[in-house]
Amino acid sequence: MARDADGYPVTRTAAGVLRGAAGTRELAVLDERISGCRACPRLVAWREEVARVRRASFRDQEYWGRPVPGLGPADARIAVVGLAPAAHGGNRTGRVFTGDRSGDWIFAALWRAGLANQPTSVSKDDGLELTDVRVCAAVRCAPPANAPTPEERDTCSPWLARELALLPRLRVVVVLGGFGWTALWPVLGAAGYALPRPRPAFGHGVEVALTGPRGPVTLLGSYHVSQQNTFTGRLTEPMLDAVLTRATELASSAGTTPP
C-alpha cells in the first residue's frame, strides 16, 4: 500500500477501503489506514480547504486535515458512534469529538459515567484516557454543512465495521443521532448480526438487543450532542447521563466473552 508524505497508507477508492479494512488485525493499524484515506473526493477537498484557510481563532494552529480515527482501548465493552468530525473540531485536532462544543458534552458525560479520567478533550496531548469505551464516527472526514452523502457514508462504512469487529468484548453500542443509527444497520448486518425486521426507528432511549457472532450486543439510541440539540434543550445532561448509565449497566451485566 502506497504511503503519503506523512507516512500514512493511502486508500483512494471504495474498493480500497473495503480491502484495507478487511485486512486489518489491530486497531493501531486501522487508525493509520483511516488517517490516510482519500476515497471521497468531495470530503477530501473540503477537509483540506478548511485546514488551509482555518478559522481566525485557530489561525496559529496546524490543522489535522485528515480523516479522524477512533479513540479508546481495544478491550472496550461500550462503543459510542457519532456522525462525523467537526470542521474546526476533530478536523483541527485530529481526535474524535475534540475541540468543539459537541466534544465538551460527550466527554463530560463519559467522565461523569466513570468512563474517562477527565471531563474535557481539547487536544491530543491533554492527558485524556478512556476506560471501557471506544468513541468513533460513522464518517471519518469533516463534511460540508455536517452532511455526508449516502454514498460517502457507505464508502466509509467498512472502517466502522472493522473497528467494531476489533473490539472483542463489545456489548453495547451507543448511537448518537439518526444518521449514525441508519449507518450502523448495514454494518451490523455485514458483520453477521441477526437484525430485526422491520428496522426499529431511531429515538432517544431506544434499546435494541441483537445477537451476533460474539454474543449479544445492545444498541442504545441517543440524540446527538450537536449544538442544535443541546442549545435548544432537546438533549439535556440528565438525558445523556441516563443513556450512558444504562450502557454501563448493560456492559457489566453482559459479562465478557473470549475473542
How do the strands of the widest beta sheet line up side by side?
A: 2-1-3-5-4
Question: What is Rg?
Answer: 17 Å
Mean pLDDT: 95
Question: What's the CATH H-level homologous superfamily?
Answer: Uracil-DNA glycosylase-like domain
Helix content: 25-40%
Number of contiguous helices: 9
Please outline the major beta sheet.
5 strands, mixed
- How much of the residues is beta strand, in percent? 5-15%
| Multimeric state | single chain
Task: Assign an overall shape.
Answer: globular
Distance between the termini: 28 Å
Number of strands: 5
**Which CATH first-tier class would you pick?**
Alpha Beta
Question: CATH topology, what is it called?
Answer: Uracil-DNA Glycosylase, subunit E
Sheet/helix structural class: alpha/beta
- CATH structural architecture: 3-Layer(aba) Sandwich
How would you describe this structure to a colleague?
The protein has helices at 14-22, 27-35, 41-53, 90-93, 101-112, 150-165, 177-190, 227-232, 237-254; strands at 78-82, 133-137, 172-176, 207-212, 215-222. It is an alpha/beta fold and 259 residues long. The chain has one domain (14-254): 3-Layer(aba) Sandwich (Uracil-DNA Glycosylase, subunit E), CATH 3.40.470.10. It has a five-stranded mixed sheet with strand order 2-1-3-5-4, with helices on both faces. It is globular and about 45 Å long.
